[in-house]
Known about the structure:
The chain is of the alpha/beta class. It has 26 helices and 37 strands. The two termini are 24 Å apart. The protein binds pyridoxal-5'-phosphate.
Amino acid sequence: MPAIHYTISKIQHIIGASGKLITDTPITNLLTDSRKINNPGASVFFALSDRRDGHTFIPEVYKAGVHNFVVKHLPDDVAAYPKANFLVVSNVLKALQKLAAQHRKAFDLEIIGVTGSNGKTIVKEWLYQLLCPDKKIVRNPKSYNSQIGVALSVWQIEEQHNLGIFEAGISTTHEMEQLEHMIKPTVGVLTHIGTAHNEGFKDDAEKLTEKLKLFTHSNLLVYQYDDLAAYKGKVPGKRHFTWSRKFNQADLYVFSETVIAKKYYLRAKFKDTEIECLVPFVDEASIENAISCWATLLALDYDPVVIDDRMERLVPVSMRMELKQGINDCSIIDDSYNSDIQSLEIALNFLNQQNQHPKRTLILSDIFQSGLEQDVLYKQVANLVKEKKTDKIIGVGKAISEHRALFKTTESVFFDDTDTLLEQLSQLNFNNETILIKGSRSFEFERLSKALVQKAHETVLEINLNALQNNLNHYKAKLNPGVKLMAMVKAFSYGSGSFEVANMLQFNKVDYLAVAFIDEGVSLRDAGINLPIMVLNPEPSAYDKMVAFNLEPEIYSYKLLDDFIKFAQQKNIAAYPIHIKIDTGMRRLGFEEFEIEHLCDVLKDNKYVHVQSIFSHLAGSDADIHDTFTLLQLDLFTKIYRQIENSLSYTVIKHIANTSAITRWPVAQMDMVRLGIGLYGIDGAIKEEPSPLQTVASLKTSIAQIKHVKAGETIGYNRNGSLPEDGKIATVRIGYADGYLRAFGNGAGKMLVNGTLAPTVGNVSMDMCMIDITGAIGVKEGDEVVVFNEEYRIEELAKQIGTIPYEILTNVSQRVKRVYFYE
Ligand SMILES: *Cc1c(COP(=O)(O)O)cnc(C)c1O
């Protein structure tokens, strides 16, 4: 809640919008996502047209109680919103940014602006950790650093703050000016400059020039000397503070670096004296980010001894929530690294998306450094808990316990500290619920998550739900207006999970799901998924279940159709939705052309079934060598669906396009598309580099033992493997029973170990295999090993053994634990 009081008329004035107001109301919340409504009465919805036209969400947002809208044009049915104020502007995003910039201007506080290619979020969060002992800080939640994210972040500035730390991220030219208007940093920090997001820029120079625009009006700029050495004179900022590990003319010259007991010891020259600093990290990226923070604090005149003391206590930044299987049939959302009100809201939204258990529980610690009065803070927390329909709250800490009265409407229990909670954990009888664990660092909630999460086998398949959402949006953006989307979640969502993926899809409002078998559909219903679901292979023996769970069969033959009609007759079922499958050339399932006339006779005026859709499947939509064939399939399908539709007295949904067809065959979209493998980040038809899709699944395992072997010694079963020279092998915890096929043995498969690709040696065993790590540096027992991820891609792995990514993905066996990430 900003200390400045906004009303909708004041906002109208600021953004220069036209439109007549019905009533004037106070506004505290800016809403840009229809799925994340909070305090609707005091919200104004910005109908942004990002990937989808924001105006299409007005009906549902209005229904949820929001009565203020910033739009580009009035809705056609404006009379349907009698209580709504519509503010009309020529550019909705610009209006949002103008409001944010105006809000920023109202405050005279120091603001650190952070940008660069990598490390923005880490540096922002670490500066926060370093400066929060003596400042009241406002910062971007998570990595909300985009054109919209920055506007929403800046909106959080309130009277009591005396420092802002905001990161800015851009992907192309002319974006930074907008961000600069909103952030107006007084101090700038430029983090690592690398090749991330190069695609939106002509070259590195253009990218750097654009990034530096953030600092146009800054008094002080902190950067790595080496990055801008060639740039002299053109670097903005009244005063500069540079650091370097190579050049002693930098203000902070780091001349010595050593690892001591897993910590990194840095010595540097600063103002002609020697200073030192110990950081609790040893990886290169962390060191660079840490030096950047060190330099910033020195530039801000902090005492080097104080800085050293604080740097040593830096903690890793985890922006992602992990969704894992818990004890007693629970799901655990682990967000145990930090706690503030903004990230609590994000986490509660994610909790709210989970439908797999009847109950949602929040374990929350005291929240520190919010800058708010305790009463105000916990009142906000209590409101959020109530709005996000959390069933139970377990509060941990003195402060939250003192405010227990605020949580009266929710089932609640309070503990003074984490130890007391852990002692009494078993009495809490967790069972069949989704539990969000959210705690400030000092509460050590990782001990809690350890106690509640099922012990994981050390091989895990990590699923990145943000990537999945990104991929879904990529394809949605390709659809013509009104085209529906069916998401294929057969075979355990291509190996990626069941309700975890389905919840995400339901939350993102896809129109349909498709599963292979009735049982798969039943599990989704059991997990609270209420989207329509098509079953590709309905078994007549389970029709009862199918109907009981409201699952819709694909009907591909007379036999199936007859069986189902008879069943419907017996059970007195009328107009049950079915999906008619046509074989137009795949030669797998479906009615053929010569059968259509008779099919029409059966379907016409049939009161037991209702043809919900007619569809077919393309055999080669991904490759141009099949284009003539694809055209034939499309023609035949069009002819057949017309024939069927003509004989019915109603219209039906027609669909044929799978992932590659969405990419390559816009004409094939018809009324709906069926998105499969693209959702999981793979599409053979996309030739762009880098691909607009993001990697969803990463398979990781670990090293059980390392051995030194002599040249020629035989390794593994059948003594198939050996090293040409003396070397080192690692035994890793994955084998063919986990889905790491035997075909990957004897060098066919490789794994990433500490950045080096290590080939397999010898045959793959059931639960283990051996890899050659002779060339890898700094590898220890227990280290993580990557089987595939965004760097070593599934596509590459599949090629190695002459198969396709679909097979690799779906082969990862069910005993491999799935862990889900969401930011
Ligand atoms: C699996 C499947 C799809 C999805 O195919 P992708 O190539 O993974 O997009 C579409 N339609 C049917 C009938 C399928 O079986």
